[in-house]
Specification:
The complex is a heterodimer of chains A (377) and B (240).
Chain A lengths: L2 H12 L1 H31 L2 H4 L5 E5 L11 E2 L1 H7 L4 E15 L5 E9 L11 E4 L9 E5 L3 H4 L7 E4 L2 E9 L10 E5 H8 L5 E2 L1 E6 L5 H11 L3 E4 L1 H15 L2 H30 L1 H9 L4 H34 L10 H27 L10
Parallel strand pairs in A: 4-9, 6-8
Antiparallel strand pairs in A: 1-11, 1-12, 2-10, 3-4, 3-7, 3-11, 5-8, 6-9, 7-8
Helix pairs in contact in A: 1-11, 2-9, 2-11, 2-12, 9-12, 11-12
Chain B lengths: L3 E12 L6 E12 L2 E6 L6 H8 L7 E6 L2 E2 L5 H11 E4 L11 H10 L6 H13 L15 H13 L5 E5 L7 H18 L2 E6 L10 E6 L2 E7 L1 H10 L1
Parallel strand pairs in B: 3-8, 3-9, 6-7, 7-8
Antiparallel strand pairs in B: 1-2, 1-4, 4-5, 9-10
Helix pairs in contact in B: 3-4, 3-5, 4-5, 5-6
């Protein structure tokens, strides 16, 4: 093995204080970037959670709908119109809307009601820990997430409250269906949901379309568009992308998260560049000696870049452990940080690039070093 | 027949710029042959380190030519000069310039590593060279664990391990006591005589003449005179 790595490692570990400072800089930077991007991915996943769990081949939404949470309304008369299109098997309405949940003590809490035709296998709650989806067909039956028990003043199945002045009973409990807003989701059967949000029976927010086996989704979507005015027929992927785009970029949330990540990269690069430069300056006579004994520039670059990469590996390892702890800690929070394997790999590459970029200043300094200096001391 | 290793002709070097510019060397002619230890003797500021820098391809002259083993240095780039140093020249410095984080053996190995020589045989080579300078038992020691004399011997081992044609030593005994200084000069003389290397020792210490084959005096950037050194004289006496 070349002595390049040995020399780089020993130079690095020789000054432990400086090495610690470098690592703190890298860890701070990588954790910041990790959290920001983890929030981005977590948020991106949360805003599409309803679409992800809806058994639909196509969605029919109002013309300018930006996200699943868009409160535009469609007329149910189009249900029959769409059902008659070749290739369409089922058209299931979905209703959404805000309402008020009155706790047993009289206090009010806003909720976001999601309703669909349970019998037709519409958008139903998932990850149930108590009760069943079928139980939601009973009058006044609702499903809520366990994490909102305290907020909604319930203790589990059988707990009662009022929505929009109507008595409701908790018939199913989910775990992990958290809203990215502060408003809890309340699942109900279609007609009950309409009643909870004060919606007429002729109205729906979106329609889920299920296709017959072998039907071409793009072709059916095109036919729906041509036959029904003022609606859009889109695939789940298009709906996801639209929702993500609205919540992440339309609201500025994504830009803020990316801004934070960029700040992390800049801070990390500056800290690593400073400490690496300081280390290079301290070892300048050694680099000049290398040059004097005939070492090529590329050999010296390898030493400095190896130092940078060693910084990256050690720093990233520590940051990854912290990142995993943060992921575990936020897993059940309103906005969990999601770190996918791909994001992990990407962050390592980013760390390596950041550290190597930091080495440029040091490399420039060494290039300017005259080997004659070893004869003057 | 001895081989011409370094040849400098009409070398002039200016240092500084503008009004502060000085001629460090003026029209210097000097040749170094294999099998000879040459001592370049002169007071501080006489130009001896500048001449060593030019002969060692660390500086290029403003006028004149330098050839190392037949290769002219005139048009070489910084990388080209580094390549000439790598192939033909070994350096020994006054302050040793060992790498403090590397062991004695690793310091020696480094000279092979920068030449792209790696593997088990390089370790054998490094250990053999350390043995030649009497430091086989200290090969695992870091420079801070070695005396000044031992550090200089490691530096010599580093300079000769790749078997360069020329060894250029800049005040190699200046940081050492008399005993260690003499020991170092003995090693350098042995390298010149037994391995047919051209060894140039730059010094201001006239006591080192007995190790020299040639003594060249330099003053104010001029080579003022050349005399036969103690080693050569003894050799001549022995052969007579």
């Amino acid at each position: 093995m070349s002595l390049v790595v040995t020399l780089a490692a020993r130079n690095l570990f020789q000054d432990r204080l400086r090495f610690s400072a470098t690592l703190i800089g890298i860890v701070f930077s990588v954790v910041l970037v990790m959290v920001q991007l983890g929030l981005y991915f977590g948020f991106g996943r949360m805003v599409t959670t309803m679409i992800d769990h809806a058994p639909a081949d196509l969605w029919i939404v109002s013309k300018d709908t930006k996200s699943f949470e868009d409160l535009s309304l469609l007329d149910t008369s189009l249900q029959n119109q769409v059902r008659s299109i070749d290739g369409v098997a089922e058209v299931i309405p979905v209703v959404i809307g805000f309402s008020d949940w009155r706790l047993p003590d009289g206090a009010m809490a806003p909720v976001f009601v999601v309703g669909s035709d349970i019998a037709a296998h519409g958008l139903a709650p998932w990850d149930l820990v108590q009760g069943s989806v079928q139980a939601l067909t009973a009058p006044g039956a609702v499903a809520i997430d366990k994490s909102y028990f305290g907020r909604l003043g319930v203790t589990g199945i059988g707990s009662t409250a009022e929505i929009h002045g109507q008595k409701v009973t908790v018939a199913a409990v989910t775990q992990g269906i958290r809203s990215f807003t502060t408003t809890p989701y309340v699942f109900a059967d279609l007609d009950h949901a309409r009643a909870f949000i004060g919606l007429r029976p002729t109205k729906a927010s979106h329609f889920m379309v299920r296709l017959k086996p072998g039907a071409d989704a793009a072709k059916v979507a095109q036919t729906i568009q041509s036959r029904v005015s003022d609606v859009q027929a889109i695939t789940p992927d298009q709906f996801r992308s639209r929702s993500r785009s609205f919540w992440l970029f339309g609201t500025g949330a994504g830009a803020a998260l990316f801004g934070g990540a960029l700040l992390g990269v800049i801070v990390g690069t500056v800290i690593v560049a400073q400490t690496l430069y300081s280390s290079t300056k301290d070892h300048l006579y050694e680099f000049a000696t290398l040059r004097a004994i005939g070492c090529s520039q590329s050999y010296i670059f390898k030493v400095i870049i190896s130092q940078a990469l060693l910084n990256a590996v050690v720093g990233f390892t520590i940051a990854a452990v912290i990142g995993l702890l943060v992921v575990a800690f936020t897993a059940s929070s309103a906005l969990p940080i999601v770190i996918t394997p791909l994001l992990g790999v990407g962050l390592f590459v980013l760390t390596a690039v950041m550290c190597v970029a930091s080495a440029i200043v040091s490399i420039v300094r060494v290039i300017r070093t005259d080997p004659v200096m070893v004869l003057t001391r | 027949m001895t081989e011409r290793i370094i040849e400098a002709r009409h070398v002039t070097k200016f240092l500084g710029a503008g009004a502060a510019q000085v001629a460090a060397l003026r029209d210097v002619d000097l040749s170094l042959d294999g099998g000879e230890l040459t001592v370049l003797l002169g007071p501080s500021g006489s130009g001896k380190t500048t001449l060593l820098s030019i002969l060692g391809c660390m500086l290029t002259p403003n006028q004149g030519t330098v050839q190392i083993c037949g290769t002219a240095t005139a048009d070489a780039s910084a990388e080209g000069l580094a390549a000439i140093r790598r192939r033909h020249i070994g350096f020994v410095f006054q302050s040793f310039h060992l790498f403090p984080t590397l062991t004695a053996a690793e310091n020696v190995l480094l000279a092979l590593d920068v030449r792209g020589e790696r593997g088990e045989q390089t370790k054998t080579k490094a250990h053999a060279v350390l043995e030649r300078v009497g430091l086989a038992h200290k090969r695992g020691a870091f420079p801070r664990e070695l005396s000044g004399g031992e550090q200089q011997r490691v530096a010599i081992a580093r300079a000769i391990v790749a078997e360069p044609s020329a060894i250029l030593a800049d005040e190699p005994t200046a940081a050492l006591d008399t005993g260690n200084g003499q020991a170092i000069m003995s090693i350098l003389a042995r390298i010149a005589h037994e391995r047919d290397r051209a060894v140039l020792v730059v010094t201001h210490d006239a006591r080192l003449h007995k190790f020299a084959d040639r003594i060249i005096h330099i003053e104010d950037g001029h080579l003022t005179r050349e005399e036969v050194g103690g080693a050569k004289r003894q050799q001549l006496r022995s052969s007579a």
